[in-house]
Amino acid sequence: MSRPKIKPDCTELIAVHGGACAKYDPSLSEDCRYVCGTGSVEKALTDFERIEKFNCGFGSHLTIDQEVECEASYMSSKNMSFGAVGAMSNVFHPSRVARHLAHSNWWKQRRLLHPLILVGRGAEKYAVKNDFPTCNPEELISNAAKDSYEKYLHRMLHPYDTHDTVGAISINTNTMEAESGTSSGGIVLKHSGRLGHSCVYGSGTWSERRQYEEPFDQFSERTISICSTGHGESLVKADFCRGIATRVLDDEEGIMYSEIIREFIREKMEPSARFGGIALIVDKFKERMSLEFLIFHNCRYLPAAVRGRNNQIRVFESKFDPDNCTDDKFVIESFNM
């Protein structure tokens, strides 16, 4: 009798979220499950950008001038590479352009300053130059986006009652390197040319690996990958993702990561601002490793999914009722992976 094969641990942890939502929709979490299982951060974001119901790529919210202006960002803990694009109206997958910008050596080879962010026509020209699929701006406008525009323009509803920025994060448990990214159409009825938190270094996403010296010439490692969604201007003011990551990486007292995030939100976020986010944190010392997934927000619904070391995908339907909550006007959930 042959022995059963032991399935090796999956080394690439990945988590995604479908953006801050104003109401519960179970189909969004199932879409997150699908997107989470398709591969890397880049692949997950391009899948989101193809699904009309999410606010990114095709189906993005319209500006006050009835146009689509997409934005996206990408970050890697390796060399702290970062790239972002904004106010793009002719590219199917802005997240791919952001990742390409982060890793491009074009400027280094010419001894030029490597830009972190490209916007508008400059970003669109960069996409064309590097052979990314482009389109007419009208091809990114969905019927649902048109309906949303009309509804919010004439009924004067709150623009944050719609879907928001989507995100994906990952950590490789072998190398302890991380990647993270976001993609967004921005809020409905936004002013043309407005850039949200996705484009801002440290606000929409952050991935960082740190090594710590231990006794007897030993070393431990900690890596965090995090992305956010919600009220962009407030997230920018708080330096949201980098601020949380720095506190997590600076902690030497063993404080629970959920408490670190809780204190940051209490101190830095405006009470009226809507926000959300997910994070993966991995601690490693010799053969011991701990993995934690956190989801935190103050929106009514934040769909998410995680693929852990067993290669199984877990779906999270995180809900929050602002009319029936604790002293904290937000929720934080933590899961060991």
Automatic annotation (TrEMBL):
The active site is at 165 (nucleophile). GO terms for biological process: protein maturation. GO terms for molecular function: threonine-type endopeptidase activity. InterPro entries: Ntn_hydrolases_N, Peptidase_T2, Taspase1. GO terms for cellular component: cytoplasm. SUPFAM superfamilies: N-terminal nucleophile aminohydrolases (Ntn hydrolases). Transmembrane segments: none annotated. The record marks 164-165 as: Cleavage. It comes from the Eukaryota. Belongs to the Ntn-hydrolase family. This is Uncharacterized protein. It comes from Caenorhabditis remanei.
